[in-house]
Amino acid sequence: MNLLVFTKRVPATQEEELRIVDEGRGVDLSKVPFKVNDWDNYAVEEAVRIVEKTGGTVTAISMGDAESDEVLRRAIAMGAKDGFLIETDQILHDPGARATVIQNFLKKESVPFDAIFTGVQSEDDQFGAVGGILAAKLGLPFVSMVIGIDAFESDHIIARRELEGGLQEKVKIMLPGVISIQTGINEPRYVSIMGVRKASKVERKIFKGKEYDDNVNSTIELVKWAYPVRKGEATMLNGELDGICKELLGILKEKGVYQ
Amino acid sequence: MAIQTQTRVLTCIQCGKCTGSCPEAGRTPFNIRMLVRKKQFQHQIEESIPWYCTSCGACTIRCPRDVKPSEMIIDLRSAMVEEGDIPATIQKALENTFVQKNPWGRSRAKRGAWFEKMEIEIPHVSETESRRLLFTCCIQAYDPRCMVIPVNVATILNKAGVEFGVLGEEEACCGNEIRRIGELGLVEELQEENKAVFEEYGVKEIIALSPHCMNTLKKEYGDLGIKVSHYTELIASLIKNGSLVPRESYNKKVIYHDPCFLGKQNNIFDEPRDILTSIDGLDLLEFSRSRENSMCCEGGGGRMFFEVEAVYQRNADLRVQEAVDRGAEEIATSCPFCVMTLEDPATEKGIKVKELSEILMEVL
């Protein structure tokens, strides 16, 4: 069983006050630290757990700049056999363009696989579309938002998908196929720094992204970055603690939150 | 397990002084003497057990055979870290430290937020003649309760005419807690990063604001050629030589809680007491267990990031109850972790917890 897992290095923006620069053409990421995309971390863990049970190998693949090697080493430390870096000069935001590069890469390099794992989405672009577009381009079955894999056989999988209203949908897809993994499907193991250092000794193959840009057309154009419009609906309560508590209680009662 | 640790473990005579001094023994499943015994016979140790250790160091200090049981715990944890099988909240603290250089995962760019709003201007350490660095500590750089401590100490040192500087976002976590959690690779990275910055700016002296940072900077960074001390040592000497004079009275009964990393692990018992007794009207009380025998608040060794399974009366609760029983109006301490652990039960019992600098700000 050969499983491919896509993993992406993304800026850790949750705690940052991001600044829009170049008159809306970009965001200043110069002081923002980077990390592995959360969804991909779960996807790597899931793939590694499967091969630990069924046998086979996991290959981690990342598309991005040279620094993306960091997430490949991380995946290898988690249990992937090796890593491929598709090194690109420019950031491809368009999920269609990303999927096309991947399709070209898999075809040109004749990468064998039984299943492709992706995270549901990436924290930076949040299109949540690469997995689906890639499956369509490859003509393979696709299952999205997977929160559990109940069976992983040589020709099919039984997966559980997350639906609205607390419902789960159990589906069967034939392999080879593309599976997009939702966070929470497992508890990803901790990757120690020593583990990442050891993983550095495992060879990662580097492929130049421009070799795979046939028919890569961006259909999405960035117009402008913008901050959310302030709606002014927050109310600040000032004064003594007792007064603030009474006022807050009044508001909660008025809104029907507290009776 | 490291060969050194294994060798030391084999010299254990099972005297039980470690368990006798352990703040977790008897009330939680954690029995350090039994763990050492199990290691001697290479028996399996249940995975949740090593995480009870608060790294207070009492076992290692009191062991007559130099077995260093608290170091054995670090080795046990380290093996679990390398396996990747550790409690989720500990994992988060480590991942945060890797990305943002602090266990809380707050933005590194905001590490200097505490001094940006101060009225006095605090220079970068490279702009000082003395190259004296005020090392902030993660919890004091980010936690709203503890951010007042660096502000206070900076204000007091400024008042005494002591020149110092800061590193702001160039400061990384010291690694004291990370070492005790067992992530030794990350400790190396943090140390290398901090050492490179100290060297780049020619730092000659470090005033640590937290006993935890002071401990590791002093003992675990190798020979930096940099004098490291805790801020209470400097302030006690400034009061002694007359550079700082507490002018206001503080007519309260105050009981002092010795932080493990300041007291029993680094023998700084007198300086905080000298500061408190220099204040007119302050009636200094002592716990039945104080100085070398001080009871750990259970905030160290990764316990700030991890809730153990056992349900028991916490040490902080016992400590606060004793403070109340002894008639104290306030508990004073000189460690941010102690402040955080003591404050909840203290609030419940209607008694205040003050970090030393908070008392000083009222009397100087």
What does this structure look like?
The complex is a heterodimer of chains A (259) and B (364). Chain A is of the alpha/beta class. Chain A has a single domain, classed as 3-Layer(aba) Sandwich (Rossmann fold), CATH 3.40.50. In chain A, 27% of the residues lie in helices and 27% in strands. In chain A, the strands form three sheets. Chain A has a nine-stranded mixed sheet, sandwiched between helices. In chain A, strands 2-5 form a two-stranded antiparallel sheet. In chain A, helix 2 links the parallel strand 6 (57-64) and strand 7. In chain A, helix 2 packs across helix 5 (193-199). The relative contact order of chain A is 0.17. Chain B is of the alpha/beta class and 364 residues long. Chain B has three domains: 3-83, Orthogonal Bundle (Fumarate Reductase Iron-sulfur Protein, Chain B, domain 2), CATH 1.10.1060; 89-236, no CATH class; 245-363, Rossmann fold (3-Layer(aba) Sandwich), CATH 3.40.50. Chain B has helices spanning 3-10, 17-21, 32-40, 58-62, 69-83, 88-100, 113-116, 138-142, 148-159, 176-181, 184-200, 211-219, 231-240, 270-277, 315-325, 336-348, 356-363, and strands at 132-135, 205-208, 227-230, 253-256, 283-286, 330-333, 352-355. In chain B, strands 5-4-6-7 form a four-stranded parallel sheet, sandwiched between helices. Chain B has a three-stranded parallel sheet with strand order 1-2-3. The longest helix of chain B is centred in the middle third of the chain and has 17 residues, at 184-200. The model of chain B has no long low-confidence stretch (mean pLDDT 96). At the A-B interface, helix 5 of A face helix 5, helix 6 and helix 11 of B.
